[in-house]
Amino acid sequence: MIEAAQLFLITYFAAFAGVIPPGLVNMTVAKSCVEKGKKSGVYVALGASIIVFAQALVAILMAKYIFTHPYVQKMMLRAGLVVFVIMGIHFFVAARKNKAKEKVRTSKKSSAKSFLKGVMIASVNVFPIPYFVAISMAFSPNDDYGWPTIIAFSIAAALGTFTTLYIYVVSFLKIEKNTQAFSKYSNYFMAGLMALLILITIIRIFY
């Protein structure tokens, strides 16, 4: 139990810190929050956090295999590269249209769409898996975790991610008056972010 508690705290703060820098998931949360309101942002964060739970679970269960098979890591990165290119083009085209979206009321249907958006965005973001693999391997190179520890690790990753994303929701609500300006330039930011992720992914594939 002590090992599980220690791993929970370390993983929670690692996940919390890992989402702080502007990235694909947190900027999507911010964008949804500003354009559709707080509830939409929370649903995107919730969807993303559930995927992080699954990613952390996969990471700790397959830590030794992924860590010792660089080919598997490269295949995941190549798949992510294709997705980042497609999304980069999408955001750039949206930015060129230069039309700010009006804030809409949140309904059950739009909440479901926001939740699914969070699931989709987090699913294509493969970077957390190697991150959680490294964390889990640092604690137990022999990969001999029990199920209580495995579940605690995954829950901590999801909660740490959700905490940071919720802070993004609350923070971006303060710029509600600047919604039009944010909507105008956020697509350019997201397109630039995709370009950066493409560059990082290419470097990680070949080096």
UniProtKB/TrEMBL annotation:
GO terms for molecular function: amino acid transmembrane transporter activity. It is a multi-pass membrane protein. The keyword Cell membrane applies. GO terms for cellular component: plasma membrane. Its main location: membrane. InterPro entries: LeuE-type. It comes from the Bacteria. The chain crosses the membrane at residues 6-29, 41-63, 75-94, 115-139, 145-173, 185-206. Keywords: Cell membrane, Membrane, Transmembrane, Transmembrane helix. It is found in: Cell membrane. This is Threonine/homoserine/homoserine lactone efflux protein. It comes from Mesonia algae. The lineage of its organism: Bacteria, Pseudomonadati, Bacteroidota, Flavobacteriia, Flavobacteriales.
